[in-house]
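## Example pair
The file below holds two records. Each record gives the amino-acid sequence first, followed by its structure token line.
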Amino acid sequence: MNTPLRVLCSPDADDLFMFRALMLGLIDPGPFDWDIDTRDTDALNRIASSDPPDVSAVSIGYYPHIADKWQLLPHGGSVGEGYGPVVISKEPMGLADLAGKRVAIPGETTTAWLVLRLIAPDVIPTVVPITPYQAIFEALDAGEVDAGLVIHEGRLTYPDLGFQKVVDIGEWWKEQTGLPLPLGGNVIRRALGTENIAQASEIMRQGIQHALDNRQESIDWLLSKGGALPDSERVSEYLDMYANAETIGYSDRAREGLVELYRRAHAAGLLPKPVPVDFAP
């Protein structure tokens, strides 16, 4: 009898891309019954603290809060190399103008919000749920906030709606550190034990490789599910950013960026203690 494995990921294109092969039975599931479902990013982080699945996508910035019970998987990362979530506004605005402004954020547990606090610690956050993705644009149009922090597909679509870039936090991070910015990753419960963790990790890696090897099929499948990105070209652009060589395995530079993020966040008083980065096999 196979071991049940409950998996939660986001409904965004990069996460679905990673788990498609297991969702559709396109690779050998090994000794596991894979039960894969989706939640939005902030909800995933909170669930990992309270009602945990066996494997979960989480924000890299939130991992230190749950590291005692979870290991980072060595694959499944969404890493920005000089790009990432974007702060946008209706009218042109400089970075210095953000001080004291109301900024819509996708959740207080996200990596994007952690980095924005390093950039502009005096903003006033207003949580606008990630789902539906249009909500942050509507809040800006209605004047409920002065700026908005867009992640996932929204960071590609905002120019189409006439919004202005204030700062790309991944670009800022690269200028400050010279390193890529790990944004999201997959984690696995330590309680599963060494053997189960190693087996599940390898099968998930195979799933990511299958997606990379069958990229156009995966893109067509993503388009059939609907979403914020309207055509193959846009989905491909998004996957180029967040489902690539860094996703099959974090590079040394990406791991260095992760350590540096935690170091800077701790130094700024945004993390309670330094957290060793502990990758599963």
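Second record, same layout:
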Amino acid sequence: MNQINFYICGMLRLVSHIEYLLRIHDCVIVPQLGGFVLQVVPASYVEEEHLFRPMHKEVVFNSKLKHNDGLLSERYMESYGVTFQRAYRMLEEDVASIQSSLQKSVNVSLGAVGSLSVGNEGQIIFQAGDAHAFSVDSYGLPAFQMKTWNTLQLEHVSPLTVYERKNTFYIPINRRILRGVASVAAAIALFLTISTPVKEVNRSAYTASFIPTEIVTKVVNTQPTEKAPEIEVVTTPSKPANIPVVNKNVKKNVGKTAVVKEPSEVYYVIIGSMSTDQQANDFMAYNIDFKTMKNANKLFGSNHVRIYADKFTDKSTADAYLAKVRQNPQFFDAWLYTMTKK
């Protein structure tokens, strides 16, 4: 009974650390068991269901990734305050508990990551779980449906459907049409209330005359006519004198210094992890072509040395380069390591 409890505690402990690391890294390798890799699935549209799905990540299992990359060992060291050797032994015990359960044909649950089982031919079968917790970039964006125009036309009811009920005719009117007619009526009323300015007209032109104009003598207005006001025209010189010419293309120097914000996170494309510096040098000498990987270098940890192909400050650029590196069969298990600057 104590042995069973030990196995259960070991599995739960290992599963919690795998879930935590997958929220930060794209690949977590369990030594002597396999690696859990996050793959980005782009946004898609399901035509049959009229369903839009946002970009998300899926967890896949690679049984060929069995080497120790140091992530789980470092996590054990930080969580339990032990040395690297002690953390690695604890990790081996937890992995042994999972392998023992698989040998007994027990379905091993890995929480949100998924589950493991053994097939008929002895191979490990991975069933992916709910990976929404690992899709940080699209967190909170659910899938949604949108009806097509043809579907909306079929559901649309004609605004002027006349039907008879109990010798009474009802004409339902769409509210949109009613609001449109009211808006047009309000616009016409507003237009009519606004008075148009008209110049002063000659009233005598609209007065009826009883005497023919031929026999009417012209009466000379004895009153002096008003003299039209004189308009003073002020001329301006064609060229203003003593006005400095301002060059519009020259910008004033306001004396502000541009502040360059340093990136807070650096993304490393890891292609190898070694225990010593000498092993890392041998790996780089025999496996890396520096003509194609000019920025390849080493990243030193507490008890290991990681080799990276390149580093970036932009996540999307790092993901694109990671996909390119994985096309090389020699680095198919490359993964992304994120380092936060303090």
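Notes on the second record: The longest strand covers residues 265-274. Helices lie at 2-22, 71-80, 84-103, 149-155, 175-193, 277-287, 315-326.
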